[in-house]
């Protein structure tokens, strides 16, 4: 081990980090870029969070108190866009940057310059998107799903900036995923077979293919919008022979795989953490890989379950219902695998484990409400109500976001070389856990009782639950300041972490020193037994 | 410490469940059973899948919680080493398949019933506008003079919305002209939209269909009990998406017939009034009423609008310019903007009145006016 460190030291003058700001602008190092992605994502998470709190503050009571309806829908739109494209996706790319080379025994990502470029596009894309708040007509106000013609004929003029922004984000994602695929396929340590890779690497490999497949579709649909708006085409205008519902088909052909893009890497993270803290191997490694692939495949053939009320003929409804229900099977396999991994383990509950266990429970709740939403006749009642809002926040917040937090606590000691403060981490977990549930659990019921989503004001019978929900949202939101504090404290502290960090963590990254050296594996690791638990 | 954590865990779950039950009766927080055969079937289906999901939850979380309580390092539990048990894996793949089939069968039956395209006795066109609904009773032999067709606008006044007045019952769920239908009669709804996509939703009928501009979607219901059924637009349609409720008034057949006859008579009367010459006062009074109902949402009560989205009509632009251009924009709207064509939404008298009103209100004292019969001849092209 010490040989590795010395070796690195020796080469510091070519390979060590530059000093100052230019280090970050010019960096081609996977760890630096991972760090950039993660901080960027955190800033976006707070920004989107502030928008969410504006929404929840307005919904605290019936009546209009704080914002006008027009601004309210700008808030819902931007909250969705920022959280999906600015917070969750970049966070996972950041984690992939940090972890994939270390996990497959590579020195860096395969395409380091492109890596730099795909990150640095993002601040520009999002600055442009956010700048629309200060332009005439205001920010996008058509929901994160931007259905035409609300987003074309009836959109504010800033929609063009939105389209350009989406193109940039798409380009960034495509470059990021090419990089990840090439790294995984070409840069694995000699002898490391695909079926030996950690699940996080597997899930990211599959996610990257999903991204490659669907980001061009997103680019296509926004380009069609652009043409309709500026060049007199009529893709989505029935008056010109087009069809507004075509927009939804194309959008959801992107959008459904997109939701799996936001959850598959989370599966990988949880599959790494639970075995560590259960001190027991993952129950079914191969079946996890197959289940992930099955979910990815199914994600392409279920898109119209977002459109059950859009006038689809009965054969179409039945097909999309059955296909959607099928997803429950591989998803069930995953959940059962995690439970079986915990069973008869020797568990401890450090912060990453707490977040992971909460992930399994709350993601499952989101999955079960998803199964309910798949049942077409019932979906006619649920569609576009708070029941849907509760469903997708359960899979995205205590789902994707909790998994990211779990990952940060789990690997932070490896990244910084220091241990975080466990008591504070647990406090952060409990505040978040309670906050999330108070926020979103009641929304199932406001939805069933009939409250539509995306409305700034509501009928009186929904008042109690909205008030509870708003309280939870503020609790959850403000707990994230503690998260920031814990991370900063860890970076500064010198409570040194060991190389192994966790008693029974498996994987090549734990064979590296803490903090991990600037270049992960300058010489390929020999002991591949360690690659996955 | 460990004990404390388990306790917290249990308490937070318990709190949420109890608060759910305590704050409102179960009926207020569950799906409505509704008043049609279909809506009850949907309710039963909902309860079935809800209970199945709860049971799955209890089993999965039960096993997890037992494991978390028993298999802890702090209790000295040694990790077992088992992996890839094929029997178990087959079991947990096959059991879900059976559960899914059990859900899919009743779902398919109900869906079939919903899509049954039988003949309806009454056809009603439902048309979504930003931000109101229009209902047209489609006659077998259409006569423009007696056509029953009206807009259904939110009744809740801004004072209640902006907390300047106490909110009454049915806050945001009340309209000036509800849709009236007879009970025990199969009604077909032909759903479409004028501008953006809306969705027409009556929870008590389990009817929710997107209203898509340029397309007509069909749905149907047979209301079995008289009553007032309230719903809302269920597809984001712009700033006042939250302010376009759906209200359906189901009445016994004789009452419906009487109501329809009244409506036809009123339509005939309005048709006749188009022919007479209106005084300035009559135009201004009706004009103000129409303006507040149909225009103020965008151009505001004081005519100042909300620039740049909605222009001011005071002392500038078309409203104080050439009267033909003014009438034209009201009749035909301006494509690609929120300014809609009002020709199909308002009667000729209303259009004449509101035009006159805009030209003479808020200090726009132009003094000119337009008569309903002139509007009518423009519309009929004479
Ligand atoms: C949904 C919002 C909305 C409603 C309701 C609405 N308008 Fe407009 N109106 C607009 C917009 C937007 C414009 C600007 C169109 C443009 O870009 O030229 C406009 C323009 C106008 C103009 C021309 C103003 C000018 O000087 O250019 C007149 C006159 C007008 N509306 C009258 C009416 C009348 C009368 C009603 C009610 C019957 C009404 N509007 C209802 C949104 C609305
Ligand atoms: Cu609407």
UniProtKB/TrEMBL annotation, chain A:
Q: What class of enzyme is it?
A: translocase
**Similarity-based family:** Belongs to the heme-copper respiratory oxidase family.
Q: What's the encoding gene here?
A: ctaD
Membrane topology, from the record? Multi-pass membrane protein
What pathway is it annotated to? Energy metabolism; oxidative phosphorylation
Name the job this protein performs: Cytochrome c oxidase is the component of the respiratory chain that catalyzes the reduction of oxygen to water. Subunits 1-3 form the functional core of the enzyme complex. CO I is the catalytic subunit of the enzyme. Electrons originating in cytochrome c are transferred via the copper A center of subunit 2 and heme A of subunit 1 to the bimetallic center formed by heme A3 and copper B.
What is the annotated localization of this protein? Cell membrane; Membrane
Tell me which EC number(s) this protein carries: 7.1.1.9
Q: Which UniProt keywords apply?
A: Cell membrane, Copper, Electron transport, Heme, Iron, Membrane, Metal-binding, Respiratory chain, Translocase, Transmembrane, Transmembrane helix, Transport
Q: Which residues form the Cytochrome oxidase subunit I profile domain?
A: 24-528
Q: Give the Gene Ontology MF terms in alphabetical order.
A: cytochrome-c oxidase activity; heme binding; metal ion binding
**This protein's name:** Cytochrome c oxidase subunit 1
Alphabetized InterPro entries for the sequence: Cyt_c_oxase-like_su1_dom, Cyt_c_oxase-like_su1_sf, Cyt_C_Oxase_1, Cyt_c_Oxase_su1_BS, Cyt_c_oxase_su1_dom, Cyt_c_oxidase_su1_bac
Q: Which GO terms describe its cellular component?
A: plasma membrane; respiratory chain complex IV
Superkingdom in the source lineage: Bacteria
UniProtKB/TrEMBL annotation, chain B:
Q: Name one GO biological process term.
A: ATP synthesis coupled electron transport
How does this protein sit in the membrane? Multi-pass membrane protein
- Is Nuclease given among the entry's keywords? no
Checking SUPFAM superfamilies in the record gives: Cupredoxins, Cytochrome c, Cytochrome c oxidase subunit II-like, transmembrane region
What cofactor requirement does the entry state? Answer: Cu cation
Domain Cytochrome oxidase subunit II copper A binding spans what residues? 119-262
Annotated TM spans: 48-69, 90-107
Q: PROSITE patterns in the record, alphabetically?
A: COX2, COX2_CUA, COX2_TM, CYTC
Compartments, record wording? Cell membrane; Membrane
Per UniProt, the enzyme's principal EC class comes to translocase
**Gene Ontology MF, one:** heme binding
Q: Mind telling me which InterPro entries this protein's record contains?
A: CcO_II, CcO_II-like_C, Copper_CuA, Cupredoxin, Cyt_c-like_dom, Cyt_c-like_dom_sf, Cyt_c_oxidase_su2, Cyt_c_oxidase_su2_TM_dom
- Its biological purpose: Subunits I and II form the functional core of the enzyme complex. Electrons originating in cytochrome c are transferred via heme a and Cu(A) to the binuclear center formed by heme a3 and Cu(B).
Protein name listed in UniProt: Cytochrome c oxidase subunit 2
Please report the organism this UniProt entry assigns to the protein.
Answer: OM182 bacterium MED-G24
Species lineage: Bacteria, Pseudomonadati, Pseudomonadota, Gammaproteobacteria, OMG group
């Amino acid at each position: 081990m010490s040989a590795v460190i010395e070796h690195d030291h020796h080469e510091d003058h070519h390979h060590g980090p530059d000093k100052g700001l230019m280090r970050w602008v010019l960096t081609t190092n996977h760890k630096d870029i991972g760090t950039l992605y993660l901080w960027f994502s955190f800033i976006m998470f707070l920004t989107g969070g502030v928008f969410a709190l504006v929404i929840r503050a307005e919904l605290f009571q019936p009546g209009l108190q704080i914002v006008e309806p027009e601004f309210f829908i700008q808030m819902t739109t931007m909250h969705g866009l920022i959280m999906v494209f600015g917070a969750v996706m970049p966070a996972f790319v950041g984690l992939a940057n940090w972890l994939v080379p270390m996990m497959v025994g590579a020195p860096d990502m395969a395409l380091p310059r492109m890596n730099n470029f795909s990150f640095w596009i993002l601040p520009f894309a999002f600055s442009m998107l956010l700048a629309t708040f200060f332009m005439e007509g205001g920010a996008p106000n058509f929901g994160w799903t931007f259905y035409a013609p609300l987003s074309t004929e009836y959109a504010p003029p800033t929609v063009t900036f939105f389209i350009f922004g989406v193109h940039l984000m798409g380009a960034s994602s495509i470059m990021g995923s090419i990089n990840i695929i090439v790294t995984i396929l070409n840069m694995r340590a000699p002898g490391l077979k695909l079926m030996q890779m950690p699940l996080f690497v597997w899930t990211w490999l599959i996610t990257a293919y999903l991204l490659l497949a669907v980001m061009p579709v997103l680019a296509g649909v926004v380009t069609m919008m652009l043409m309709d708006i500026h060049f007199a085409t009529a893709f989505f205008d029935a008056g010109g022979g087009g069809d507004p519902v075509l927009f939804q088909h194309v959008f959801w052909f992107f959008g459904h795989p997109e939701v799996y893009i936001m959850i598959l890497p989370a599966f990988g993270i949880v599959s790494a953490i639970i075995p560590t803290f259960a001190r027991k191997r993952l129950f079914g490694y191969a079946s996890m890989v197959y289940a992930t692939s099955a979910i990815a495949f199914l994600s392409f053939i279920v898109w119209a379950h977002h459109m059950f009320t859009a006038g689809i003929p009965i054969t179409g409804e039945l097909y999309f219902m059955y296909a959607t229900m099928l997803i429950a099977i591989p998803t069930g396999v995953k959940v059962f695998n995690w439970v079986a991994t915990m069973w008869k383990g020797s568990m401890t509950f450090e912060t990453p484990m707490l977040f992971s266990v909460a992930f399994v429970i709350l993601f499952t709740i989101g999955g079960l409400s998803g199964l309910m939403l798949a049942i077409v006749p019932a979906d006619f009642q649920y569609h576009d109500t708070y029941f849907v809002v509760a469903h997708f926040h359960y899979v995205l917040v205590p789902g994707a976001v909790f998994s990211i937090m779990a990952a940060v606590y789990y690997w932070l000691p490896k990244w910084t070389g220091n241990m975080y403060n466990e008591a504070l981490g647990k406090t952060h977990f409990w505040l978040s856990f309670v906050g999330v549930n108070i926020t979103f659990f009641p929304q199932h019921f406001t939805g069933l009782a009939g409250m539509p989503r995306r409305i700034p004001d509501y009928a009186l019978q929904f008042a109690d639950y909205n008030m509870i929900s708003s309280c939870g949202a503020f609790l959850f939101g403000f707990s994230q300041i503690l998260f920031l504090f814990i991370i900063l404290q860890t970076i500064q502290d010198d409570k040194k972490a060991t190389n192994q960090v966790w008693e029974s963590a498996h994987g090549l990254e734990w064979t590296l020193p803490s903090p991990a050296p600037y270049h992960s594996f300058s010489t390929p690791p020999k002991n591949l037994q360690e690659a996955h638990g | 410490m460990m004990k404390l954590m388990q306790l917290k865990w249990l308490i937070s779950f318990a709190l949420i469940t109890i608060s759910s039950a305590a704050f409102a009766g179960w009926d207020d927080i569950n799906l409505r059973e509704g008043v049609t055969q279909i809506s009850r079937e949907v309710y039963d289906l909902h309860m079935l899948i809800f209970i199945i999901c709860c049971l799955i939850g209890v089993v999965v979380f039960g096993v997890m919680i037992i494991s978390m309580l028993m298999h802890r390092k702090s209790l000295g539990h040694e990790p077992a080493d088992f992996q890839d048990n094929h029997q178990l894996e087959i079991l947990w793949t096959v059991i879900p398949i059976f559960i899914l089939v059990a859900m899919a069968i009743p779902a398919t039956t109900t869906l079939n019933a919903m899509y049954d395209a039988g003949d309806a006795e009454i056809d009603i066109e439902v048309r979504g506008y930003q931000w109101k609904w229009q209902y047209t009773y489609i006659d077998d032999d259409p006569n423009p003079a007696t056509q029953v067709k009206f807009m259904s606008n939110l009744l809740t006044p801004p004072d209640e919305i902006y907390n300047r007045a106490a909110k009454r019952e049915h806050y945001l769920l009340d309209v000036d002209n509800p849709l009236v239908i007879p009970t025990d009669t199969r009604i077909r709804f032909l759903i479409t939209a004028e501008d953006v996509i809306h969705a027409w939703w009556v929870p008590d009928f389990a009817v929710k269909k997107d209203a898509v501009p340029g397309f007509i979607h069909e749905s149907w219901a047979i209301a079995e009990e008289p009553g007032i059924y309230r719903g809302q637009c269920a597809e984001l349609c712009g700033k006042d998406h939250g302010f376009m409720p759906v209200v359906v008034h189901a009445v016994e057949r004789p009452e419906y017939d009487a109501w329809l006859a009244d409506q036809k008579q009123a339509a005939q009367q309005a048709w006749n009034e188009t022919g007479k010459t209106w005084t300035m006062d009559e135009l201004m009074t009706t004009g103000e009423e129409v303006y507040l109902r149909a225009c103020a949402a965008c151009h505001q009560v004081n005519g100042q609008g909300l620039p740049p989205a909605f222009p001011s009509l005071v002392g500038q632009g078309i409203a104080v310019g050439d009267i033909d251009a003014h009438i034209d924009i009201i009749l035909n709207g301006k494509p690609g903007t929120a300014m809609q064509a009002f020709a199909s939404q308002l009667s000729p008298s209303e259009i004449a009145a509101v035009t006159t009103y805009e030209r003479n209100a808020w200090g726009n004292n132009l003094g000119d006016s337009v008569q309903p019969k002139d509007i009518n001849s423009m519309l009929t092209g004479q």
